[in-house]
Amino acid sequence: MLPEIKTDLFFRYTAGKRPRLVFIHGVLDRSQTFRKTLNYLKDYETVIYDRRGYGRSINAGLSYGLEQHFVDLKAFIPKYETVLVGHSYGALLALYSATKLKNIIGVVAYEPPLSYKPWWFAQQSAGSALDQFNDPEKAAEAFLIRILGKQRWETLSSRIKAERKKEGPAFVADLKPVRQLKAEPFNPRSINAYCGLVQGELSFERNKRASTELHALIKHSDIYEIKGAAHFGHQSHPKAFAEIILSSIKKAQDLLDVTED
Predict the structure, then answer these.
(1) In whole angstroms, what is the distance from residue 219 CA to residue 76 CA?
(2) CA 242, CA 239: separation in Å to the nearest integer?
(3) Residues with Cβ < 8 Å from 142, sequence gap 6 or more?
(4) Global pTM?
(5) pLDDT tens sequence across 176-219
(6) Which helix (H) or strand (E) segment is 95 a member of?
(7) What is 11-117+185-260's CATH number?
(8) Contact at 8 Å (CB) between 55 and 253?
């Protein structure tokens, strides 16, 4: 039976056993990014959704900053145990949300961007497209070219390119507030949920440093590395990513059993 979920955002719900898994995509992406991963998690109750301004939620307006996105996310989080699975900006939102709700028992965070850290921009970031273009569509295009590579970008159909560029305002609304932060948007030490911090073997060093620093601050956490993967390892290595999610669910449940004794 479909649970009561009150939201104006596009989502897909699949029934299954608990805890509920809620997936959160990154910038210039959409819920379908987790499609391959879900093939390995068919036993579980899952929710995927398009964040405001993206995919089928493109006409739902914009959310500025983590707090507004958290308000959207709360609609998908039930009163019972939940594990959040986030990629990139979605991973940052997942960690932020874990400081807010006690029924979030676990987080799987694939390379959250700590762009509020002074060392983050020592290596050029794709997000620097914001600094080069005032036009959101041009900034979005530049970001995707840096992420995908010029050759892959050119292979995309004109329809897909146009759709992605139309998501430029959401891209700016996501990254600009985070890049302007002068302090951490949340305290990692206050996260009591289990956190699986995921990185790709071939990812940039700043992404790996983010995992290392978060691991040192989050009391119940582990670092997982996907061999042969880069920033989009959840797409290129969905089975390996799903296995990390399953391991994290077990560790989150074991931790909950210990704390309840």
Answers:
(1) 26
(2) 5
(3) 129, 132, 133
(4) 0.95
(5) 888 888 789 999 999 999 999 999 999 999 999 999 999 999 99
(6) helix 89-98
(7) 3.40.50.1820
(8) no
